[in-house]
Specification:
6-stranded parallel beta sheet, two-stranded parallel ribbon, 12 strands, binds guanosine-5'-diphosphate-beta-L-fucopyranose
Length: about 325
């Protein structure tokens, strides 16, 4: 990947896509391409084809997705599977037809079977049942990873041109703060801010507070993603082995939802009570990924979890 190469970011306004944009700019990449939904609907194959034909990007970051937290996944399974399949099929196939040199697809740690509680390795994919609350989204993401893999095998002479990363739960600028459909960090930041402002006596948090999640600041995940795509096909294969085309991106540490609440309580100055509302689902109890391969990517995590949580809280 050269600094003058044309790089297309699909989904540049979202949590991860916007972090990729910041990271590429910071590293000195000059020729970055992105589009607005109004101009190119990524769910429309013809529009995506025309866009690729006209612009001929050399590299692609596929960060466009219909994503959301546990409740959004449960309430909108059809949208989560249909829209994601459409967008990723359109972009991956157009990238192949237009001779894109390398493409990076964004997976999610929810693709791994639910019975692995920690040290989830890349090779554990498809070795057990998926978590019910996000099965449809996970199946779309698994299909995306295998679509990339199939093009490498059939059209690229086994070279790993189309790759995927499996990031853990992300948070940071441009997150979705919808009260029902966001992920937990954004939801709790918004709820603590509001509860302090309105001097509420209690704050309600979903589930038991016991599930643990591995959180990563979006800019750290983006840094890893860019470095993964910069690796030559040979180097990437050396990293993941002959049979894989994806790699975990995590921190190796997780925290319970209760711990997150206690920290937010401290930094927000909220004086009321935290009530865990068991009517809402916990989802996976734990899904801590192995970082054995992550550690071999030439990047370093720069943002300490609690410091970046505080920064995100203050900037909200
Ligand atoms: O972030 P979250 O929705 O993602 O929820 P998942 C994580 C945990 O936080 C769950 C609890 O145990 C929730 O019950 N939680 C507590 C809350 N209060 C809240 C709240 O107000 N809002 C939310 N959203 N959660 C999603 C998947 O799973 O994570 C997606 O459904 C995707 O497919 C994404 O993979 C990364 O980690 O449970």
């Amino acid at each position: 990947m050269k600094f003058k190469d044309k790089i297309f970011i699909a989904g540049h306004k979202g949590l991860f896509g916007s972090a990729i944009l910041r990271t590429l700019k910071k590293k000195g990449f000059k020729n970055i391409l992105f589009v607005d939904k109004k101009n190119v609907n990524l769910e429309n194959q013809k529009q995506v084809d025309n866009f690729f034909k006209k612009n001929k990007p050399k590299h692609v970051f596929l960060a466009a997705a219909k994503a959301g937290g546990i409740l959004a996944n449960m309430k909108k399974p059809a949208e989560f599977i249909y829209k994601n399949l459409l967008m990723q099929n359109n972009i991956i196939h157009a990238a192949y037809k237009n001779k894109v040199e390398k493409l990076l697809f964004l997976g999610s740690s929810c693709i791994y079977p639910k019975h692995f509680l920690n040290d989830i390795k890349e090779t554990d994919l498809l070795s057990g049942h998926l978590e019910e609350t996000n099965k449809h989204y996970a199946i779309a993401k698994i299909a995306g990873i295998y679509l990339c893999d199939s093009y490498n095998r059939q059209y690229f002479n086994e070279q790993k041109k189309f790759r995927a990363i499996i990031p853990t739960n992300l948070f940071g600028p441009n997150d979705n703060y919808h009260p029902l459909y966001s992920h937990v960090i954004a939801a709790l930041i918004a709820r603590f801010k509001q509860s302090v402002r309105l001097k509420k006596k209690e704050i309600r948090v979903w589930g038991t507070g016991r599930p643990k999640r591995e959180f990563m600041f979006s800019d750290d995940a983006a840094e890893a993603a860019v470095e993964v795509l910069r690796l030559t096909n040979k180097k990437f294969e050396k990293l993941v082995g002959k049979n894989l085309n994806y790699i975990n991106i995590g921190t190796g540490k997780d925290y319970s939802i209760n711990q997150i609440c206690l920290y937010l309580k401290k930094i927000s100055g909220f004086k009321g009570k935290i009530i865990f509302d068991k009517k809402y689902p916990d989802g996976m109890y734990r899904k801590l990924m192995s970082t054995k391969l992550t550690k071999k990517i030439p990047f370093k995590i720069k943002n300490n979890f609690f410091d970046s949580l505080k920064k995100t809280y203050l900037e909200y």
